[in-house]
Amino acid sequence: MDIFRRRAKRALLIPWLGGLVLVSSCAWENFSLRPSESAAERETPKERLIFRSEDYAVLTLRGDESSGSLAREFLGDPRKAWVIEEANRGTPLERGQMIVIPLKEENRGGLTPEGYQVVPVLCYHHFAEQCDSLLCTPTSVFEQHMKLLKDEGYRVINTEELSEFLAFRRAIPKKAVLINLDDGYRSSYDIAYPILKKHGFTATLFIYTSFIGASKNALTWDQLKAMKKDGFEVGSHTVTHADLAKKRAGENEKEYLARIKKELILSKQILDEKLDQDTRWIAFPYGEFNPVVLKLCEEIGYRAGFSVKAGGNPFFSEPLTLKRDQILKKDMESFLGKLKTFQAISLK
Questions:
Q1: Burial zone of 42 (CB within 10 Å; 0-12 exposed, 13-18 middle, 19+ buried)
Q2: 85 contacts 67 by C-beta, under 8 angstroms
Q3: Whole-angstrom Cα distance, residue 185 to residue 311?
Q4: CA distances (Å), 25 to each of 76, 96, 101, 104, 245, in order?
Q5: Is 149 inside a domain boundary?
Q6: What is residue 346's predicted lDDT score, i.e. its pLDDT?
Q7: I want to staple 289 with a disulfide (CB 3.0 to 4.6 A). Which of 9, 97, 260, 293 is the partner?
Q8: What is the pLDDT of residues 266-277, one digit of tens each?
Q9: Per-residue confidence (pLDDT) for residue 41, from 0 to 100
Q10: Which residues of the chain have pLDDT under 50?
C-alpha cells in the first residue's frame, strides 16, 4: 500500500503539468496569429521547432507529418502517437498548424487523486452472419462494437503495451482496451480481421495449436502469419484446449503434472517455430488455473496470463491472472457495461 500511495503522490503533479502545457500551447497559438504577420508568413513558417524544454516542444507542422512520425521523432516510439493526438485533440495535423508535444512520460500507472485507470479486455470467440450459440458474435454486432469503440475515442492497445503498463514502465491511453480472439476459428480471419483493420484496430489471438488447420472452420498458419504482419499478436491457448486446473479420472499427480507441462511447453514451442516469435502470452482454457499452473507458466517464460473472470486490470494487477470480459450477450447496453476504464477512489 505504501508504494501505491507514493505513486499516487507522484500522480498529483500530472494535472499541474497538463495545465502548463495547455496554457503554453494557447499562448503560442495566440502568438502565431499576431495581426502583424502576413498570411504568407503564416503559411511558410521560418522555423519548424518554435520552443523546446524538458517538458514539451512546440512546433509548426510542415504538412508531411503524421502523429506516428512525430512520435518516432520526438518520443522515440511511433506507438506513442496517442500522446500527441490526445495533447492536440481536435487539431488537424496540416501544414502551418502549431501543435504541442509532451516530452516527459505521462502518468504511468494511470493514477489521479480521484482514482486509477483500469484496462478492459474484450474476449470474442467466433463470428457468423447468424449465430446459434453464446460464444458466437453476429457480424453486424461486432461491427457495431468496433464502430462504438472508434466513435467514442477508445484506443485498442496490444498485450505488449499492457505488460509494460502493468510493470509500471509506460503510460497508455486513458481509454485503452484490448481485444482478444480465442480458439483459432476461421471466422476470426474472414469476419473479424477486415472489420478490425477497417477501424484501425488489432487483436491478440489465443489459439490452441491442435485446432489450426484441422478443419474448414479453423485458421491456417498462413492466415495467422498474415494477421501477425498487420500487427496482430498470437498467444497460447495450450495444445488441446485442456482444463489445466483439473485432473483427469484416474490420473495421479505425476501424470497430471506431465500432461499440463506438455500442454504449456509444446504449444509455446509450436507457436515459436511456426510464427518465428517468442510466445509470452497465454489464455487459460475455460479461464481455469491453479498455483501449480502459474508456477509452470512463469518457469516456461509466459509473462501474461488471462482468465475469464470479469473486470478491468489496473497497473497493480498480477500479470498471470488478468481479467477478461467474454462477449456473450448481443445488446449494446451489456457491451457498454464492459468498457469501464477508470475506478473512482479518493487517493487524497
A1: middle
A2: yes
A3: 25
A4: 22, 15, 9, 16, 55
A5: yes
A6: 79
A7: 293
A8: 999 999 999 999
A9: 39
A10: 1-46
Computed from CA positions of residues 75, 235, 223, 157, in that sequence, does the dihedral angle turn out positive or negative?
A: negative
Query: Looking up cell 503564416, which residue turns up?
Result: 42
What are the grid coordinates assigned to 58, written together? Answer: 512546440
> Does one domain contain both 132 and 6?
no
Residue 11 inside a domain? The answer is yes
Q: Are 174 and 86 within 8 A, CB to CB?
A: yes
- What whole-number distance in Å separates Cα of residue 61 and Cα of residue 94? 6
> What local confidence, expressed as pLDDT, does residue 6 receive?
38
Rounded to the nearest 10°, the torsion over CA 204, 310, 161, 346 is 170
Q: Do the beta carbons of residue 155 and residue 119 sit within 8 Å?
A: no
- Predicted pLDDT of residue 129: 97
Q: Which residues, including other chains, have CB under 8 Å from residue 89's CB and lie 6 or more apart? A: none
Residues 89 and 153 in one domain: no
Q: What is the pTM of this model?
A: 0.82
Tell me, rounded to whole angstroms, the distance of Cα 277 from its chain centroid.
19
pLDDT at position 159: 98
148 plus 80 within the same structural domain: no
Question: CA-CA distance, 209 to 183, in Å (whole number)?
Answer: 9
